[in-house]
Specification:
heterodimer; A: 41% helix; elongated; B: 444 residues; mainly alpha; two-stranded antiparallel sheet
């Protein structure tokens, strides 16, 4: 019983701590536009697409003879996916298409601001702690169901 | 093929009290670092150590590990550790629902295909954040499973990698089996399955006495430690030999074998220079301007191609052997696995060997080091290509031989009846070879 109480206490601290972290992070969360609400600094907008360049400061050998011109400084120049998405953006050339689809939106998940990411992580901890607390509560109500591993 | 590995150093390690806990502690610590990097580290994939470790190192090495050591990875997987701790803290220890036992493998197939599709649509691999969110989601599923059900129900019935790992492990070099002649006289009340004071129960619900497949065994060594009769052996076997005598072939496993071929094909194609042309062709044919729709059509076509090919070959082979198409499909679908594994290895060999230095560079960046100039490749492109061709050739040979052995062991020895299967495998191998000759984009 004491062990169960300690578990409840530990999980409660976990939940409350996460809630606190979430609460601390939430006001700063930007709602996804990539700019921070913190006074005093402004974060760069979150990139919607992966930048075309790869490792900063080093060159990556092309997989083979590049078909888009030799001597490129990065693999991205020969990256077919990038060819599709980048300036060519052939979708833009067609009239009447959905502008939202013109940037190959599916290739790279947009990264939210650090505060939003922290809030998501805190939310994750909260949800999982809630799941575990629920299981513990059910187990406490029905002790016979809790057959421990040997 | 070989004696009992438990009589050597492997046995010392597996019988040790530190196995698998010590290895799991290391992987869990690395996993924590990966999660931190993915979720809160650099936003750009080429700067993120978590992305490099996950997609340039772990993912390419996983199929190789499955071939060399079966599902030993699963026993040190951090998700297993999470399951164990959730169970110890709050586990309700309920029996696994019958639905999961019956349809879990279909769920695994469906979730693997869905996540592969989502990877490209939502950019999971190419975004540290996307990768991190995927792992968070998996962790939540593991917590739910650990809180509700017995043992490692998630690993056995839910993990989306389970199907792939099971299939590849069948081709693998290592097997754990029980000496049934000793088991017949056992009075230990299935300690290998139920556990003992020396070790826990089998986490994946396998009973060594009747186990005839390496698809699910994690090589956790619980049964080895619990067996009072020393009846368990771990031995090296001929690669893919398990496929030759599948006692109870299952449609979802054959289905997945064919689907993986399609997944590898589409993963290859999307990294090639021909991809924009394919997209334009799809857009021209359908009138859509949405990348999501175009990719989904290409993805569905790639998955359908090997399934339809196997169905067609099964129709002809089935007629010649006098059996139903679905039976032939299920039986010979397993023969695709060696080629699947080879294609998977060949594809990932490119990422590991052409981008390998990025692991070191992103790791050093954690300590403030600047990323150096130069190529991230460990091997030259021609050398990687030779390796890819060799892998495909070996995989094709393994698959062709598997067809022959499956044909012989299932009652129809006529080679002519197997010709459609041979043709199908050669076609897939050639298709892979052609794709590997084209310039491929990097992941990082």
């Amino acid at each position: 019983m004491i062990a169960d109480m300690l578990r409840v206490l530990g999980l409660s601290i976990l939940v409350l701590g996460s809630a606190g972290l979430l609460a601390a992070a939430a006001p700063a969360a930007d709602g996804g536009d990539g700019t921070s609400a913190h006074a005093g600094h402004v974060m760069a907008p979150a990139p919607v697409e992966q930048p075309a360049s790869a490792h900063a400061g080093h060159t990556v050998a092309p997989a083979t003879t590049p078909t888009t011109g030799g001597g490129h400084d990065d693999h991205a120049a020969a990256t077919p996916a990038d060819d599709h998405a980048a300036p060519a953006a052939h979708e833009d050339e067609a009239a009447g298409h959905d502008p939202a689809s013109s940037h190959d939106p599916g290739r790279v998940a947009a990264t939210p601001s650090l505060e939003t990411r922290q809030a998501v992580v805190a939310g994750f901890v909260l949800v999982n702690a809630a799941i575990m607390l629920t299981a513990l509560a059910i187990g406490l109500r029905h002790p016979r169901r809790r057959r421990r591993l040997a | 093929m070989s004696g009992n590995l438990l009589h050597g150093p492997v046995g010392v390690v597996m019988r040790s009290r530190l196995y698998p806990g010590l290895f799991r502690a290391v992987t869990t610590a690395v996993f924590a670092l990966i999660m931190f990097q993915l979720l809160l580290g650099p936003e750009a994939v080429h700067d993120n150590f978590g992305s490099a470790l996950t997609w340039v190192l772990w993912w390419p090495l996983l199929p190789l590990a499955l071939f060399l050591a079966g599902r030993a990875w699963c026993t040190v997987c951090p998700f297993g550790w999470v399951t164990d701790w959730v169970q110890k803290l709050v586990g309700l220890e309920r029996p696994v629902p019958r639905f999961l036992k019956r349809y879990g493998i279909w769920l695994i197939d469906a979730s693997f295909i869905l996540i592969t599709w989502a990877d490209h649509v939502f950019g999971i691999v190419s975004s540290p954040w996307g990768s991190g969110v995927l792992l968070l989601g998996m962790t939540t599923a593991v917590v739910i499973s650990g809180a509700l059900w017995q043992r490692r129900a998630f690993c056995r019935y839910v993990c989306f990698l389970g199907g792939v790992q099971g299939n590849y492990s069948r081709v693998g070099l290592v097997e754990l089996r029980a000496d049934t002649s000793i088991c017949e006289t056992c009075t230990a009340r299935a300690a290998c399955f139920n556990g003992s004071e020396r070790a826990g129960p089998c986490p994946v619900f396998e009973f060594p006495r009747t186990m005839d497949s390496s698809a699910d065994c994690n090589l956790c060594a619980n049964c080895i430690k619990s067996c009072p009769n020393d009846a368990i052996r771990v031995s090296v076997r001929k690669p893919s030999s398990e496929l030759w005598f599948i006692r109870s072939p299952k449609l979802p496993e054959a289905f997945l074998a064919a689907a993986i071929m399609g997944i590898v094909l589409v993963q290859n194609v999307t990294m090639l220079n021909v991809w924009p042309g394919i997209l334009e062709a799809i857009e021209g044919a359908t009138g859509t301007r949405s990348y999501y729709v175009s990719y989904t059509i290409a993805f569905a076509a790639a998955i359908t191609l090997p399934l339809a090919g196997l169905a067609l070959a099964s129709t002809f082979t089935g007629r010649l052997r006098g059996e139903r198409m679905i039976r032939t499909f299920t039986l010979f679908g397993y023969a695709l696995i060696p080629l699947d594994l080879a294609a998977h290895l060949a594809h990932n060999a490119f990422h590991l060997l052409a981008e390998g230095k990025s692991i070191l560079w992103t790791g050093l960046a954690l300590f403030g080091a600047d990323q150096p100039e130069g190529s991230a490749a460990l091997l030259s492109t021609p050398a990687i290509r030779v390796l890819q061709f060799v892998l495909i050739a070996v995989g094709l040979a393994g698959s062709l031989y598997a067809v022959r052995r499956i044909g012989r062991s299932s009652g129809g020895a006529a080679t002519v009846a197997l010709a459609p299967m041979f043709a199908l495998l050669v076609a897939f191998a050639v298709l892979n070879l052609v794709l590997f000759t084209l310039p491929m984009a990097h992941r990082m």
